[in-house]
């Protein structure tokens, strides 16, 4: 067995296989291994001409095929299967070797695995990889965590196989130590859920309020995709909406069951945000919208509930309404990203990751599911001011929202009048209005807490904590 492979990939389902091919196509010698050996053979048979593959049937052969320090990529299901593969390979490795987990692992698992393997002097590099099957093959956006030393060794290879942004910059950076890469990938997915939900709401409004057909809405999305909403998700939305079901001749979107599924990364984004105390209401609404859609019995039981009787818009008003929806979608999108970046900043503070937010925006510009022209603007905002308190504090975004807000509100009024659910748009606007409010009813909440539980409150005019003797003479005491 020759020890010439610069990198190895174990787990050759479609993501692993495509990633291995991407390395090989970029001139690297790639050792390939899979639990079921036939998959390894199939890969080499089908794609062997694309580059240098070293097929390995056993874990031992696989490890022996790698040059040192070894770079071993595992592409298996997150959770127990990842632990099982680590347990199988770790005893075969030597100090300085690297295990790169390219799955959608929970960052807390990544932190644990990194800690455990560090004791053996093995670098564990939890790595977010976005872009689906096509991205893995042609260039994904890559979010590696782990030690800086491991990035010194891996970085150049990852830069080579990654997507390149429009300015040629590779869509990969060392995100930060231990679980930072998987954390950022998790938030990427949360933002992905929010983007998809907002696009879904825009579609529903164009259909139910403006009366457009799916094919017409596809054209509207195509037009939007030439402007500031230019993004992969808008582009594929137009493709999905214009697709006609061959069996029935109906729009494809009308023959698909309206129950959205999820594998869980969006849910994690919200769970972790709750722990960190970061309001990611737009992302949360996107997760809840998926779960609501799946409650089929509850929805059946609720079908007869009363709704409004407003008529859809006439043809003459529809085009103007579509323009307003574009404004509402763009403004809501700014809010989703504001919330997502806030969560990354909070995670970075909590775990001392020192994440460069501008860099994250930069590596999301190409290859990943949320890639969008808009991310270049976010990069600029953070490059201009690394300690930006929020994206909404950036002058350009603030001005754009100022210009969009009347339409944003009008769209929500129309949605409410018509009874079209728009939880993403509404949550985004509520977040915006709450942040800019002079006073919030949180003061009343504090009063109520103090009334029923003596939980105390702080005053606007003096330092300290206070309690009012609600059951007595209602005088105030220092707590
Ligand atoms: C990516 C995607 C990917 C994710 C799918 C499905 O960045 O390539 O985020 O990692 O698995 O989008 O996610 P759900 O099944 O949870 O919708």
Automatic annotation (TrEMBL):
Keyword Metal-binding (UniProt): no
Pathway: Carbohydrate degradation; pentose phosphate pathway; D-ribulose 5-phosphate from D-glucose 6-phosphate (oxidative stage): step 3/3
Enzyme Commission number(s) of this protein: 1.1.1.44
Coiled-coil spans in chain: none
Alphabetical list of Pfam families matching this protein: 6PGD, NAD_binding_2
Binding residues for NADP(+): 11-16, 34-36, 76-78, 104
An example Gene Ontology molecular-function term: NADP binding
Domain of life: Bacteria
Keywords in alphabetical order: Gluconate utilization, NADP, Oxidoreductase, Pentose shunt
Binding site for substrate: 104, 130-132, 188-189, 193, 263, 290, 449, 455
Active site: 185, 192
Transmembrane domains' residue ranges: none
Location of the 6-phosphogluconate dehydrogenase C-terminal domain: 181-471
Catalytic activity: 6-phospho-D-gluconate + NADP(+) = D-ribulose 5-phosphate + CO2 + NADPH
Enzymatic class: oxidoreductase
Swiss-Prot/TrEMBL GO biological process terms: D-gluconate metabolic process; pentose-phosphate shunt
Similarity remark: Belongs to the 6-phosphogluconate dehydrogenase family.
NCBIfam families (alphabetical): gnd (TIGR00873), PRK09287.1 (NF006765)
Known role: Catalyzes the oxidative decarboxylation of 6-phosphogluconate to ribulose 5-phosphate and CO(2), with concomitant reduction of NADP to NADPH.
Subunit structure: Homodimer.
Protein name: 6-phosphogluconate dehydrogenase, decarboxylating
Species annotation: Streptomyces avermitilis
Lineage: Bacteria, Bacillati, Actinomycetota, Actinomycetes, Kitasatosporales
């Amino acid at each position: 067995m020759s020890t010439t492979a610069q990198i190895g990939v174990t787990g050759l389902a479609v993501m692993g296989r495509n990633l291995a091919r991407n390395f090989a196509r970029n001139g690297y010698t790639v050792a390939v291994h899979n639990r079921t050996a036939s998959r390894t053979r199939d890969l080499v048979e089908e794609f062997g001409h694309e580059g240098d593959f070293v097929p390995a049937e056993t874990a031992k052969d696989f490890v022996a095929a790698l040059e040192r320090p070894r770079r071993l990529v595992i592409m298996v299901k997150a959770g127990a299967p990842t632990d099982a593969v680590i347990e199988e390979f770790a005893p075969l490795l030597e100090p300085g070797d690297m295990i790169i987990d390219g799955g959608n692992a929970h960052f807390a698992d990544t932190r644990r695995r990194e800690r455990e393997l560090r004791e053996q002097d093995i670098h564990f590099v939890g790595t977010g990889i976005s872009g689906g099957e096509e991205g893995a093959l042609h260039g994904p956006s890559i979010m590696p965590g782990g030690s800086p030393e491991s990035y010194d060794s891996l970085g150049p290879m990852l830069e080579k196989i990654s997507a390149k942004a429009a300015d040629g910059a590779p869509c990969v950076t060392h995100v930060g130590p231990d679980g930072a890469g998987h954390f950022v990938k998790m938030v990427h997915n949360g933002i992905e859920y929010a983007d998809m939900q907002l696009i879904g709401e825009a579609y529903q409004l164009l259909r139910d309020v403006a009366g457009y057909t799916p094919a017409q809405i596809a054209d509207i999305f195509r037009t939007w995709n030439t402007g500031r909403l230019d993004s992969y998700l808008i582009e594929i939305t137009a493709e999905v909406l214009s697709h006609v079901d061959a069996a029935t001749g109906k729009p494809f979107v009308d023959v698909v069951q309206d129950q959205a599924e999820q594998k869980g990364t969006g849910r994690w984004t919200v769970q972790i945000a709750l722990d960190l105390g970061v309001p990611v209401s737009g992302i949360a609404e996107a997760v809840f919208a998926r779960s609501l859609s799946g409650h089929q019995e509850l929805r059946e039981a609720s079908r007869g509930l009363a709704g409004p009787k407003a008529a859809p818009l006439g043809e003459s008003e529809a085009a103007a309404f579509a323009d307003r929806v574009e404004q509402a979608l763009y403004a809501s999108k700014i809010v989703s990203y504001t919330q997502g970046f806030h969560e990354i900043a909070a995670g970075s503070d909590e775990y001392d990751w020192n994440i460069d937010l501008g860099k994250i925006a930069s590596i999301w510009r190409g290859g990943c599911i949320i890639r969008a022209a808009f991310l270049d603007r976010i990069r600029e905002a953070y490059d201009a001011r690394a300690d930006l308190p929020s994206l909404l504090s950036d002058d350009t975004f603030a001005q754009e929202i100022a210009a969009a807000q009347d339409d944003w509100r009008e769209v929500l009024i129309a949605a409410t009048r018509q009874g079209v659910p728009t939880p993403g748009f509404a949550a985004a606007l509520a977040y915006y209005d709450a942040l800019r409010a002079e006073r919030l009813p949180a003061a009343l909440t504090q009063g109520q807490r103090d009334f029923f539980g003596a939980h105390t409150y702080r005053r606007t005019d003096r330092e300290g904590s206070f309690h009012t003797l609600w059951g007595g003479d209602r005088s105030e005491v220092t707590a």
